[in-house]
Design brief:
Elements (H helix, E strand, L loop, with lengths): L2 H17 L6 H12 L7 H8 L3 H10 L11 E6 L2 H5 L2 H12 L5 E2 L5 E6 L11 E3 L2 E3 L4 H12 L1
Parallel strand pairs: 1-3
Antiparallel strand pairs: 1-4, 2-3, 4-5
Helix pairs in contact: 1-2, 3-4, 6-7
């Protein structure tokens, strides 16, 4: 293992040890790692698998199934845009295109300057206020061109 890998494994070992003997430890371990590092590095998946007596494929399957787990660090801001039917019916597609253009990123990408990660989600529970987004954990309803431009300015500041 390279030096950086050793540092990452050292950072996640206490999290693994904290949860490994509990019932259903995989999700609490993954949550703890993401909370600590901001992402779940691929190089820790074998470490988790070994600690829990699981296959690497089982651990990877869980990480890849849940969209909130990241393989790489996110930007300073995380913008989640709802892509579900209610938001689409209220102009969500135009807002999505506008935000991608304003931010210079596509869904699933982080801006080159590290300012923002743009993610698509399928329902934020704000259907009555669609189209909707979530910026750094705060929901934003009734998105329009003006709010999209304001969001872009805020994350680039």
């Amino acid at each position: 293992m390279q030096h950086a890998d050793t540092e990452i494994v050292s950072a996640v070992t206490p999290i693994i040890e904290r949860w490994r003997h509990e019932e259903g430890p995989l999700l609490p371990i993954l949550n703890g790692i993401q909370r600590e590092l901001g992402y779940v590095p691929r190089e820790v998946l074998p470490v988790i698998a070994d600690a829990l007596n699981l296959s690497r494929a089982e651990v990877y399957g869980v990480v890849s199934f849940y969209h909130d787990y990241r393989e790489k660090p996110a930007g300073r801001h995380v913008l989640k845009l709802c892509r579900a039917e209610a938001c689409q019916s209220m102009g969500g597609e135009a807002i999505a295109e506008r935000l991608q253009s304003l931010l210079g990123v596509k869904f699933g990408e982080t801006a080159a300057d590290g300012s923002v990660t743009l993610e698509e989600v399928y329902c934020l529970g704000l259907c009555a206020c669609s189209p909707a987004a979530m910026l750094d954990g705060e929901v934003i309803g009734r998105l329009d061109e003006e709010k999209a431009a304001e969001i872009a300015r805020e994350v680039r500041a």
